[in-house]
Specification:
This protein is α/β, with parallel strands linked by helices. The chain has two domains: 1-144 and 275-326, Isopropylmalate Dehydrogenase (3-Layer(aba) Sandwich), CATH 3.40.718.10; 152-271, Isopropylmalate Dehydrogenase, CATH 3.40.718.10. It contains ten helices and twelve strands. The chain has a twelve-stranded mixed beta sheet. α7 (216-229) links the parallel β8 and β9 (234-239). α6 crosses α7 (216-229).
């Protein structure tokens, strides 16, 4: 672990809580978990102890009370709670720069602070639904998977950022199979689960109840599960989603694959609202993020909770260590 380069953290939207939670995370972790922040130092909270570095590797040599910064000038100041379209292109450029560092071996993983997709679309013609899809583009991979993880639960939505009415059409056998394969592989390589157990939710109430409440379970989900079970994957389901997330049920699997966004995210945000981590599976590099948004309503007030960002840093480090093992 000592030989790994530091993590690199993107600033996210500087009008959100990213800068202040980055400072709070450094204050809490000190030098125990080295990371370098990329952004405009002028956007950090007043009084922040920071120091510019030329290389990410210099972060480990700084005092634990100092935030290491790879400066990235932005065209406009940041007003907490009010995103500025003038800064949108720089937000995107910081993400690209961070990915370049980890791809070049200068960083062991990327931890991204929250962005606002609407602000990026309006200010930079951002052509992606979110971080996950943009990172896949930068990595040159066709398919990645979004996992939300905390100590008690890991969940994966098969479909992500789309209207609920579009989910049944988007839920194809190929998409479900890819999601399950990527999740299974990542549980082994990134989370150290030797024999992953994956619970799979149905799409409809009561998992369709033998076709009485929808046929996606019998027509799409079950055939995919049977095919992958024949290869040796330990898959349970399709299960009624309303009985999958109580403590006894959670003890029977290592991750839950759900059919749409809220089916996955409501349980984990109920179980651990502050400590959830967004992990992108299927990338050739480690990427995590706090499981919250820009929180414009509290930005700049010094009350933002850094728990999720700290958890994202810890998870990224653990993943990087596992990937580095021979």
């Amino acid at each position: 672990m000592a030989d790994l380069p530091p993590l690199v953290m993107t600033c996210g939207d500087p009008a959100g809580i990213g800068p202040e939670t980055a400072v709070a995370a450094r204050r809490c972790l000190g030098a125990a978990l080295p990371f370098v922040w990329i952004g405009d130092p002028a956007h950090l909270p007043p009084g922040t102890h920071w120091q510019a570095v030329d290389q990410a590797s210099e972060a480990g040599a700084l005092s634990a009370s100092v935030l290491p910064v790879l400066p990235h000038p932005f065209p406009a100041p940041a007003t907490p709670g009010t995103p500025d379209p003038a800064n949108a292109a720089a937000v995107v450029a910081v993400i690209e720069r961070a990915v370049g560092l980890v791809q070049g071996g200068a960083a062991s993983g990327v931890v991204t602070c929250p962005i606002n997709k609407a602000a990026l679309i309006g200010g930079a013609d951002f052509g992606f639904p979110g971080h996950t899809e943009y990172l896949a583009h930068l990595a040159g991979v066709d398919r990645v998977v979004m996992m939300l993880a905390c100590e008690q639960l890991r969940v994966v939505p098969v479909t992500i950022h789309m209207a609920l009415r579009d989910v049944p059409e988007a839920l194809t056998p190929g998409l479900l199979e890819q999601t399950l394969r990527i999740t299974h592989a990542a549980l082994i390589s990134d989370f150290g689960v030797a024999q992953p157990r994956i619970a799979v939710a149905g799409l409809n109430p009561h998992a369709g109840e033998d076709g009485a409440m929808g046929d996606e379970e019998t027509r799409i989900i079950t055939p995919v599960l049977d095919h992958l079970r024949a290869e040796g994957l330990d898959l349970r389901g399709p299960l009624p989603a309303d009985t999958m997330f109580h403590p006894a049920a959670r003890a029977r699997y290592d991750a839950a694959v759900c059919m749409y966004h809220d089916q996955a995210l409501i349980p984990i945000k109920t179980v651990d609202f502050s400590g959830g981590v967004n992990v992108t599976l299927g990338l050739p590099f480690v990427r995590t993020s706090p499981d919250h948004g820009t929180a414009y309503d509290i930005a700049g007030q010094g009350v933002a909770d850094p728990t999720s960002l700290i958890a994202a840093l810890g998870m990224a480090q653990d993943m990087a260590v596992r990937r580095a093992r021979p």
